[in-house]
Amino acid sequence: MILPVTERVEVVNRLQKNYVWDTVKNYTTNYDKLWLYDKVHHELNTLCSQHTLQEIYIDLFGTVDDILASALQDGCTQYAPGIEVLSIRVTKPKLPASIMKNYELMEAEKTKLLIAVQSQKVSEKEAETQRSLANIEAKKVAEVAAIRAEQEVAQAEASKRVAQIKDETHVNHAKALADAEYYRVTRSAEAAQKQLTPEFLQLAWAQAIANNTKIYFGPSVNNMLVDFFAGAESWKTPATKKHD
Fold it and tell me: Is 219 buried (19+), middle (13-18) or exposed (0-12) by CB count in 10 A?
């Protein structure tokens, strides 16, 4: 049956058949008044004393039915086990005008506070996002600068290496030219040394005489020939004279 406990609370309960005699015997036919009607007010008072108006009226109101049903069933199970609490329906109470006004003001202030808190959280989140973006940008700039620095160092090293190669090439080329010139002069000297034979010297002397040719007439010709052969003999080296 549905028992109106108060104007705002209804308790749906059932008395089991095998417990009817004992329940009525012990608690009369008004057993539900003792274990439901009177007790529900006590449980409501206990619940309200442990929570704020906000919690009872808003936050926990959806669980009030289950809390009361559990509390009533615990008492019935211990002292009147034949009574089963099937469900409880609690209608939302009407608050007095003065309390309602204060409550509305409190809720308005609370709403403003929540809005301010949320706004602050949004601002902090935006600032954090900006800091993160700035850090990312700074890191990117630093990485780009490091890459450019590495590129510049690599280019400087490459330029230095190219300059070294050019210098080495120039030195090697100059050395090759000097070696070639030294070889040429040496070979020329060796060739000239080999040409300084008695025969070559006699030939050179004869050519020099021939280039200075003069025509003589009369008895001086014999003297000229004597002088010529005497000059030729003077060009001979001691080794040549020994050989003769």
Answer: exposed
Measured CA to CA, the distance from residue 178 to residue 180 in angstroms comes to 5
Q: Label the pairing between strands 83-90 and 9-15.
A: antiparallel
Q: pTM higher than 0.70, yes or no?
A: no
Cα separations (Å) of 179 from 182, 184, 188?
A: 5, 8, 14
Count the neighbouring beta carbons within 10 Å of the beta carbon of residue 83: 23
Alpha helical stretches, state H, 35-96: 38-49, 53-54, 64-79
Taking alpha carbons only, the member of 161, 183, 160, 164 closest to residue 172 is 164
| pLDDT (tens digit per residue) in 31-69 | 888 888 888 888 888 888 888 777 777 777 788 888 888
